[in-house]
Design goal:
single chain, 42 residues, mainly alpha
Length: 42
């Protein structure tokens, strides 16, 4: 049981930061798109 829990914790620690980075990356890309649109209109 402990081995399964350790594997789960390892995968969790490995995957959560990546999904958080991916979400942040998407938000930043969206902001860049909005800024580029506002610059092109001027």
């Amino acid at each position: 049981m402990d081995v399964i829990w350790l594997i789960f914790r390892f995968l969790h620690a490995f995957l959560v930061p990546r999904t958080a980075l991916a979400a942040e990356n998407l938000a930043l890309r969206q902001q860049i798109i909005v800024l580029q649109r506002s610059v092109k209109r001027r």
